[in-house]
Amino acid sequence: MTNKIWVYIDHFKGKAIPASWEAIGAGKSLAEKLGGGVTALVFGQNVEDLARQAFASGADDVLLGDDPVLADYRPEPYAALLARLSRASQPEVILFPTTVRGRELAAMSAVDLKTGVMPDAVALDVVDGAVIVTRPVYAGKLLSQARCSARPQLITLRGRVFQAPAVDTGQTGSPTRVDTSGLADTVQSEVVEYIHGEEGVSLTDAAVIVSGGRGLANNPSLTPPAGMDEKQAEVWRAQQGFQQLGELASVLGAAVGASRAAVDAGYIPYEHQVGQTGKVVSPDLYIAVGISGAIQHLAGMRSSKTIVAINKDPDAPIFKLARFGLVGDLNEILPQLTQAFRQKLGK
Ligand SMILES: Cc1cc2nc3c(=O)[nH]c(=O)nc-3n(C[C@H](O)[C@H](O)[C@H](O)COP(=O)(O)OP(=O)(O)OC[C@H]3O[C@@H](n4cnc5c(N)ncnc54)[C@H](O)[C@@H]3O)c2cc1C
Q1: 217 CA → ligand 1 middle, Å
Q2: What is the pLDDT of residue 305?
Q3: Which residues have CB under 8 Å from 293's CB, separation 6+?
Q4: CA 302 to ligand 1 center in whole angstroms
Q5: Staple 3 to which of 37, 135, 218, 327, CB 3.0 to 4.6 Å?
Q6: Ligand 1 pocket by C-beta < 6 Å: which residues?
Q7: So what's the pLDDT on residue 220?
Q8: Model pTM?
Q9: Which residues of the chain have pLDDT under 70?
């Protein structure tokens, strides 16, 4: 019998996105309520090892689409394969991690399957056989609960919210290889090249994030190199600030985030931006340094488990959300904090 709950395993070149294993954890909780087991969908080329990892992470079955046409993620053949499998086996629920690829594939598959998508779930429940999805709306000010009347119910899951099952390499199985013929006919795009972004800890997977805002440019004691105009001097100061922030991040093994004001001012590249128009993160610890706490920023980090804010303005809105607040000049606090963590962690 085919399982009712399917989980799409998102990966890049065979390396799984951790949220894929969290999705298996969420799938297993649903399966306890809906009955049956969890089937993992592994698409790619030479991805048998991912199938093995999916079994070790708790999948009861794996549908393996292994084909050169699936070597690079492209929405057309991936969605075509997913829709073909879904029509044949009629799962009740398909879970995806809320990654760029996961969102795209869920949306495209929903069109193919004439069903709906409920994106960015932070909680799942089952009522009368339907999955009730809780998801933040209005920049996280409200939580909405939704259900989908069509089948399958396509749901993307926010990263670092659901618990991944403990890996047990003793759990093994044989993946079911699926027919991939004809997928090449669906392809309309070609991956020309991958360009390396910055190395470092991925923001969305990070357990700890140290984030900087416009306040990092505010260090009048620093004298910029001669010949800089006011704007260049501001960016230079901010970059010294981000360097200091990077030291704290490196001691904590953290990723570096930023506010949009810092990104727009050219202090740091866009891939670091947290917020409504940046990345949505849920780390265990989020340290906001020189960030005021505008609603659009909060939309991206509100679900962090512990928030610490460093700001010289005691009325900054970030303090309303922060568990711990340090009111003072970040230029004094940051080096002390870094040194204290260095000693504490023996680094
Ligand atoms: C449609 C839309 C989408 C947006 N999307 C995003 C988004 O995705 N992410 C995002 O972040 N913003 C977003 N914004 C922008 C948002 O509204 C704010 O403008 C932005 O978050 C402010 O960034 P900031 O906190 O770094 O700067 P500011 O608001 O200028 O705050 C700087 C803070 O630093 C403090 N400070 C200054 N000097 C020091 C010092 N020496 N020591 C300690 N503290 C100091 C100040 O007290 C202040 O609180 C969006 C806005 C719009 C309209």
Answers
A1: 12
A2: 96
A3: 309, 316, 317, 318, 319, 320, 321
A4: 15
A5: 37
A6: 213-215, 218, 259-262, 273-278, 290-292, 294, 296-297, 300, 311-313, 316, 329-331
A7: 94
A8: 0.87
A9: 1, 199-200
